[in-house]
Amino acid sequence: MKRVRISRCATQLLAGRTPRRPSCPCAAGLQRDITPHDYRIQARSLSTVAIEKDSELDIGTPDPTSSQPAAAPAPPAIPHRKRLAPEQLPSPHPFAASHSTKLSALRARLSLHQRFPLQTLARTLVHPSADPDPAFNNASLSILGANLLGYYTTEYLLCNYPRLPIPVIFAAQHAYTGPKALATVASEWGIEAAAEPGGEVDPGLLQFRRLRSGSRVPAALRRQVPWKWNVTTTHRIVATDEFGSDNTPPDPQSLSAVPVPMEEAAQSFVRALIGALHLHLGSPLVKRFYRDHFLSRQLDLSTLFDFRTPTRDLSKLCAREGFEAPVARLISETGRASRHPVFVVGVYSGKDKLGEGAGASLEEARFRAAAAALKAWYLYRPIEVTLPSSMEGELDTRKWKPNMVDCGEVIV
Amino acid sequence: MASKTPIRSLLQTTRSSLCPARLSRPSLVRTSACAFSTTTPSRAPEYETEAADRPRWQQTPPRMVAPFRTRPLPRGPVFHVNDDPRKLDDAYVRMLGPGGDKMLSEEVKWLAVTHKSFDHGRRGFNDRLAFLGKRIISLQTSQALLSFPPAESWPRDANGHPVPDKFGRSPFIHPALANLASLTADAKDSVLDKKRLSGLAERYGLDKVTRWKPKRADNLQGSGIDAVLMTSLYAIVGAIALERGGEVANKVTQDKILAPLGFTFSSD
User: Where do the RNase III domain residues begin and end (chain B) (predicted)?
Assistant: First the structure.
């Protein structure tokens, strides 16, 4: 049977097609949503041949203009099985991906190249709780994608803010690529979730088993590592994930038996998409994608700081760096005897003013000034940085400029 | 002043043997923050002028040291850390090959093997470097697992077509997704196991040069030497990434960490 190349234009999929298939009387009205399980279509959709050219992906579809519809000489390689209704499948058949308007619209919306297969895009939307089979869900892809997102975010933060303290790095990672951030990104991309997973849902919907409201978060999503009574920051760095969680995140495949919140499913989708893009389209594109969708988000790092005793920290920092001991001096004040005084205090090391703060009391102003001085130190930003990932596969090593390595935040 | 002399002599007795010659003019040569201050440093006698010339890794900042110890000494034997640059260079050469000691600058070389417990974090520590190194090693492990076919791949029939599962469907086959089944969290955890990585670090001699403070010097396992060595290993990779670039760091990860753990990489 002649194979038909899917044209670049997606309107062919939008048109109401009536392929020549053995028609089911009840499928006529539900043509778009139901994938009839036809062994001949399945045989055509299987392709173990390596894709030679990247620009086209041959998918065997029933060609209305073909001259040999019924007299297909090649019998299917697999034995004819009892036809299962789509509702009995855990997730949509891979063949349904090529007919889903939602998927092709999503691919176009994300400006992805046509050679990124819709079947892989459909696979990234299937959470293990919807389909436990690892060959059909996004568990492995989400592991790869999580590694990529963590790496790119970490190198961006460490190169652009070399003195950032570790808790702030954790918080910034969480803000850029944490579960809530990825769930927001997924909703911004227009991802909607199916009410219940199954083979009959549109492949362009996010499929996962929903956690009923009011029910407890399953144990698989909670404490994972053996409990330690003192979980230090350094322990979090090596033992848990890039957000400094107390526990290691659950294995994505282990969530196949539990209902999950939507945030977890959306997070797995975004990660799996990044992983799939890396495998299909290569890392330069993933870096551009990451820059466009994640680094373009604004994050004010100065709001992530939370000092307990900034004056003591600043004093130790000046001692460590060899500056003169910090001295707080009142710069200006107003309304000392009134109900709303304002004091402006500056913290000086010798003749240099390190920071300034205004407050309603002398104490508050002094604390704010010390905090401002510490932020000025920790938020130092070099003008030009070269990221480590920019040298991957790069032949011209003259572009490389070594990054500043800071010794660490001040420990009191 | 007479009252200052006993303190000064007390401080001088704590100096180690590596002591540069005293200069007439104090100069603050720090790796960072040189341009931060516009005032000349104070020449008051309480600031040790010779201490200002020594690198950060070599001494605790003088103004952070109390003149005498007030707390009792901890129980157990004293734990000695390495302060010989040649031993550190040997460990780097053993790990990174010839020229390994030239790969990083001097301060970063010491910083990468300094745990936060050493000297109460006053000489810097390798947390940030270990954070980046762990991301790199994790990503490289995932990619290495993807380059090997899985132990159990989808069953195929005599013609090589995938056999349908119980629902009668076969997965979408594409060369880019060929070995995806071998990337599982269990596989990654078994590769990056704490015991295996600390054993690897010990083979490289990092346990002799890592600067840390164990809870009990006679029970290093109970004090957590495995985690400390893992941190050092990650930190060295992170330092190479920041100072030399991602390409070199990936190569070091593949050749010096993943290859001894059982992966083989074809040289491209």
Answer: 106-260
Return the structure tokens found at A153.
């975010």
The pLDDT tens digits of the residues spanning B73-110 come to 888 899 999 999 999 999 999 999 999 999 999 999 99
Asked if the interface predicted TM-score (ipTM) of this complex is over 0.85, the answer is no
CATH homologous superfamily, domain B85-258? Ribonuclease III domain (1.10.1520.10)
All structural domains of chain A with their residue ranges: 6-89, 98-303, 311-378
> What is the CATH code for A311-378?
3.30.160.20
**Inter-chain residue contact B242 with A323, CB threshold 8 Å:** no
Q: Which residues contact B114 (CB under 8 A, 6 or more apart)?
A: B57, B123, B124, B125, B126, B210, B211, B212
What pLDDT digit, counting tens, does each position of B34-53 carry? 445 555 555 444 444 555 67
Q: Are B132 and A155 a contacting pair at CB < 8 A?
A: yes
Chain B residues inside the 8 Å CB shell of A148: 139
Residues of chain B neighbouring A117 (CB-CB closer than 8 A): 172, 174
H/E segment holding residue B5: helix B4-13
Please return the burial class of A327, using the count of CB atoms within 10 Å of its CB with bins 0-12, 13-18 and 19+.
Answer: exposed
Residue pair A197/A85 in contact (Cβ under 8 Å)? The answer is no
Q: Which fold has domain A98-303?
A: Ribonuclease iii, N-terminal Endonuclease Domain; Chain A (1.10.1520)
Q: Which pTM value belongs to this model?
A: 0.81
Q: Which pLDDT does position B149 carry in this prediction?
A: 86
**Domains of chain B by residue range:** 85-258
CA B253 – CA B147 distance, rounded (Å): 15
- Phi, then psi, of A92 in degrees rounded to 5: -60, 150
Cα–Cα distance measured from residue A403 to residue B242, given in angstroms and rounded to the nearest whole number = 5
